[in-house]
Amino acid sequence: MEYSVRIGGEAGQGIQTISSILGKVLVRTGFHVFTHQDYMSRIRGGHNFTQIRFADRPIACSRRQVDILIALDQQTVDVHRGDLAPDGLVIHDSETIGRKYDRPEFIDVPARRLAMETAGKRLMENTVAAGAASGMLRLELAPLEKLLSQTFAGKGQEAVDGNIAAARAGYDFVLNNCPRCAFTPATSEPPARRMLIDGNSAVGMGALLSGCRFYAAYPMTPSTGVLNFMAGQSRRHSLVVEQAEDEISAINMAIGASYAGVRSMTGTAGGGFALMVEGLSLAGMTETPVVIFVGQRPAPATGLPTRTEQGDLLYVLNAAHGEFPRVVMAPGSPEQAFYLTGKAFELAEKYQVPAVILSDTYLADAGWTLDGLDAARIEYRDHRLRADALERLERYQRHAFTESGVSPLAEPGASRHLVVTDSDEHDEDGHIIEDAATRIKMVDKRLRKKLPLIRAEMEPPRLYGEERPEIVLAGWGSNYGVLKEAVDELRERHSIAMLHWSEIWPLPATDRYDYLAVLRRARRTICIENNAGSQFARLLRSETGFQFSNRVNRFDGRPFLLEDMLQEVGKIIG
Amino acid sequence: MAETVDFEGQQPAWCPGCGNFNILKSFKAAMAELGLQPHELVVVSGIGQASKLPHYTMCNTFNGLHGRTLPVATAIRLVNHDMPVIAVAGDGDCYGEGGNHFLHAMRRNVNVKLFVHDNQIYGLTKGQASPTSGRGMVTTAQPAGVLLEPLNPVALAVAMDAAFVARGYAGDRLFLQELMAKAMRFRGFALLDILHPCITFNRLNTYRWYQERVYRISDSHDPSDREAAFRLALEFGDRIPTGVIYRNERPTLEELVPVIAGKDPLVHQPFSRAEAETELKRFY
């Protein structure tokens, strides 16, 4: 059992309100929900939509085919009608969109009139629509009413009552006027308690639980959600959040905060990361731990600001002048985003290197249903020297040579020892040097000693499907969900598996799991990426010599939907 | 109690006779005068001759990138508002490369002291015009002379309503020390623009040139009078005033950010995993 609901309209019409209410109600009713958003770079007007797919089993991507289309404007009907399932229905308000449809699949819900009649507010037509959709799906009203009370509690009893009345009106109208509404969703009884979380919130939660105490950023889609999340947590969790004047400042602030003794983070999109690159190199040279969230969107330059792409992988791997180790994590789901943000903080601090969390617009906004997130799985160890432990040292050198290349990281001002670091090449004390011998030792320490240690911490790619597949669908980052479901669909007829990389750099070694052997054994290896240049395929080839037999690329700014993926893969494997 | 000698650092690599030597002397004496120990303060510097200063004294040091002193210094103060934080930069560093950070540091009024060694030229790259170079100055990069109007950092700071604006001169060492101490004692962001000759590359603004023009502002000037301050700030030619030009004490950023206002420094506040974990509830 599964259904997809798509809600379309102009920016500012309240698409988000309907989808977040409906998504949460479905989760609380016991379904697995996947939501994703498609919006234009504007505040009002244009054409935006969100999609809610739900099922009685775990799901991980969106479908093209929709069962219920909620059209808040005429354009939604025009653009999405072709995606309607054979038994699909369109909810619309003929008064709002200014056109009546004399076809059985069109259900005319007078949302505006019902909103005015029940709540006296036109704005509540969205709540009417949410109620109507719930009615079509024959959901219980109670979870919707409870959610509305919780959502609008802050706005007073009148708002709560109005919304509940509006939802009921939509619900009842559909029950009485939609004989064709034959959706029969089945759920577990009683419903399991599950969460609905998007990629950006998962990164924020991961950061919070990793002990992040300082976040500086300049707003930029699709990273702004992380800034907003962190700002919202600031007061409750001793977290300083500063909106910087530019991204150059943001990363330098994050580095300054880390030097002063707390875990810190910054976040941006590809364009803002371009401004941070100088600071990235500074973190490399001064061996200052810092976590950088990079949300990819189609570029070059401003590109398609609100859309998605995986075009910044090689850029993030190679950005910055000079040679120094870095960590790059590319989570494939909010769950991975949560745990890998934790790991990014841990590795950044343990090895005193910059760590990048590479996401994209699709993952940033997509909502996944999870059984839960296990905070205990996020390691939190304070690797810094503080107070007594520091004071007791006979001598302290910020960049002391050690066996591992990792020097003790001390909190400045916490003892009589001075903490000195420099963007110039420096000696163990942190003071400027120019001599060749020290330079060689410092490069050995910073780069050559640490890199293999970090590599050993990286998890190999995840195999899903056949253990010895003839066909491998390879991917990284946000394509995780759609690749996984594609394997589910194709498994009956093919010996197939997904190989998915979420810990990208340093490229995981093959000693624990020989993923190269899996690839070499397979008859077809298809690397699937949301970019034009097959960046991961190029990376794997340059690092290991392995060449994929086929590549699938999508670079129109849209994510792969399940049908698209099956079609593309089908062209190759037949 | 620390003495000047406790702030002795490495041997400076500046040209003999450089104005920076006097600034360094004033710095060490001012820190000792304030009763600070080297480990009790942080100096953040950028890139340029001025930015080598922390290596030539004793202090916690973050010698970062060209132009980027203020973001680093701001964050250090937000993380540890018990610790005095000084940003040391040059005129190219702070007013050129770091111009945007300078503007916003004044808006933030974070309690950071900004000492700008302003010699009206680029020294480290051997003699190109800086944002404060006078019009007509001929350099290797400006063979037709500087065509741009010089930036007046002091007037800009008064216009921005910066909390504390002062100008010093390396040739008036004791007065400079006094101004440094005043800036340090002030509660809020403090700009101290320090004029000093570059004896190697700046043939125009020599010791003699400054000596003939620089004077101490009279005690009758009221630094809280913004109009009077602006008149003084605009005076840069035959006469160049030094001293505290403008003062507008108001709450600092550290006193306004709710998480740290009136509380322990962030770095010493406990982190509770259990409390953070409760935030997961909102997603159910």
Could you walk me through the main structural features you see in this protein, from its secondary elements to its overall organization?
- The complex is a heterodimer of chains A (574) and B (284).
- Chain A is α/β, with parallel strands linked by helices and 574 residues long.
- Chain A is 40% helix and 21% strand.
- Chain A has 20 helices and 21 strands.
- Chain A has an eight-stranded mixed β-sheet, with helices on both faces. In chain A, strands 9-8-10-11-13-12-19 form a seven-stranded mixed β-sheet, with helices on both faces.
- In chain A, α8 crosses α9 (224-233).
- Chain A is globular and about 85 Å long.
- The two termini of chain A are 27 Å apart.
- The model of chain A has no long low-confidence stretch (mean pLDDT 95).
- Chain B has a single domain (4-283), classed as Thiamin diphosphate (ThDP)-binding fold, Pyr/PP domains (Rossmann fold).
- Chain B has helices at 20-33, 69-79, 91-97, 99-108, 153-159, 173-185, 207-213, 226-234, 253-256, 273-277; strands at residues 42-45, 60-63, 85-90, 112-118, 164-169, 190-195, 214-216, 240-247.
- Chain B has an eight-stranded mixed β-sheet, sandwiched between helices.
- In chain B, α8 (226-234) links the parallel β7 and β8 (240-247).
- Chain B is globular and about 70 Å long.
- The interface between A and B is large, with 63 and 55 residues.
- β15 of chain A pairs parallel with β2 of chain B, so a sheet runs across the interface.
